[in-house]
Design goal:
Elements lengths: L1 E6 L2 H17 L1 E6 L10 H7 L6 E2 L7 H19 L3 E5 L3 H12 L3 E5 L11 H12 L2 E4 L2 H9 L6 E3 L3 H13 L17 E4 L3 H4 L2 H12 L5 E4 L2 H10 L7 E4 L4 H9 L3 E4 L2 H10 L3 E3 L7 H5 L3 E3 L4 H10 L15 H13 L1
Parallel strand pairs: 1-2, 1-4, 2-3, 4-5, 5-6, 6-7, 8-9, 8-11, 9-10, 11-12, 12-13
The structure holds uridine-diphosphate-N-acetylglucosamine.
Length: about 350
Amino acid sequence: MKIVTVLGARPQFIKAAPVSRELRRVHEELIVHTGQHYDALMSDIFFDELGIPAPDATLHVGSASHGAQTARMLEGVEAVLLRERPDAVLVYGDTNSTLAGALAASKLGIAIVHVEAGLRSFVRHMPEEINRVLTDRLSDVCCCPSDVARANLAAEGLTKGVHVVGDVMLDALTETAARLQNEPLRVQALGVEPGSFVLATVHRAANTDDPARLRSIVDALGAVGGPVLWPIHPRARHAIRQQGVLLPANVRVVEPLGYFDLVSALTHARAAVTDSGGLQKEAYWLGIPCVTLRDETEWTETVASGWNVLVDADTERIVEALRIARRIDAPRTAYGTVGAAARVALAIEHELT
Ligand code: UD1
């Protein structure tokens, strides 16, 4: 089969690494990079580190309002699909690149594979939630990370072409963690001592673009009572500058990290505090307590198991959750076992050949 993979944002590069390798064992794969993330530290470094094949087409859409960004991607992806006439289009997760890829394929009657299907936060005003719901609705093959995701689809009447394959991010993480074991500790080069610090990431528009919430989060990081390492997403950096937020002395802001540095930092953190979806899962798999700066999460299993706690952007709740955060004796198996990428390939073969 000829498969076109559409990606464009940082977490999608990580997911594509193991999946592309599996697909290319038996299929022809072309990669279309929408250009949603374009900085070297948000994009190129992941292709280099993870050995992801270079994109066959790059659309350079860059930053814009959601509508304009998605529209440019839709037009660009459609042109590639008209030229290449693939048998299927594969998309990951919940970004604007995901929806644009799925929509372009659906308009041309091309089969759609959605990896990380069935996730729901049930918050309709989150752009990612709309992207998820619509992409699942359009997809012919829905690859779910968990039984909860499958049940979410069933509740919306989607049962055909649905497979629980596990989580492809676990494949990427397992491989990288094993590789890092044979290297000197990267985290020390980031200026923090292993086991002593909290790893922070903040990038959701709801947190960065609302001055009260951003201040509340930064105040909490300042009150943690120990070093905080904050690899900063461009959106957060921009918001901090624009809002004139002063960073507390214990908060060490660094450039966005590549995947190897990020995995090293998380592995040696005392706890993570984040609004990222991916980091909630990575912390869970590595056995690092996670404090999530949201009121809800689509990764409910991490919370149900006790490894993750939702604190919204409330200073006191964040500080208290980080104060008591510790490793617990609870299983971390909700997203299956390594091998999800191979199971994605099997699901595609089962449904589309
Ligand atoms: C996007 C996804 C989000 C995902 C995140 C991972 C959507 C709706 N959101 O959010 O689900 O968790 O990626 O990081 O698709 N910018 C740069 N350089 C870059 C990329 C972005 O400077 O390489 C800046 C731009 O000012 C841009 C802002 O960051 O406007 C936000 O980028 P965008 O891709 O629109 O959304 P993310 O917040 O990254």
